[in-house]
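User: For my dataset I need records formatted as: sequence, then C-alpha cells, nothing else. Please produce one.
Assistant:
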Amino acid sequence: MWKQFLMFLLLLAAPQLNAQDTAQVTAEQARILTMESAWNQAVQQKDAAGLKLLLAADLVYVDYDGTLMNKTEYLASVQSQGLHPERVVSEFMNVHLYGAVAVVNGVYREKGVKNERPYALRERFTDTWVRQGERWICVASHSTLIRH
C-alpha cells in the first residue's frame, strides 16, 4: 500500500527537467515527465505495482537488444531475481504533444548488478503515452543502446 501511495506522490510531484526551460513546459508535459521519473524509480525499486499504474495493458516494449515484450514480460524482466538496479535516471527528455498522444524522447541511464556482474547502460528512448480521460498511460516504449 505504501508503494502505491509513494507512486501517487511521485505522480503529483514536480519533475526535474533537464532539457527544457521550466517556463516553456505545459502542465501536461510536466505530468508526463513526472510519470517518466516515477517509471525510473519503480524500475530501480523493482515496484511492479507502481509500473502497472503507468503502463497500458497492451504495452509494446522493445528493449535495447531488440527483444519485444508485452506488459507481463516487461514486468517479469524488471522483477528478475538476478537484476539489481542501483541507479536509474533519464536525461535530456523532450515531450511532444499531439492532442491525446504524447511522445517522449530522451536518454536513459541504468547502473547496477545483473547476474552478479556490474553493468552500466546508456540508451536513447522513445515512449508513447496516450491520455485516457484524465489519466496518461504508456502504450509503447523503444530504446536503442548508445555505445560509449
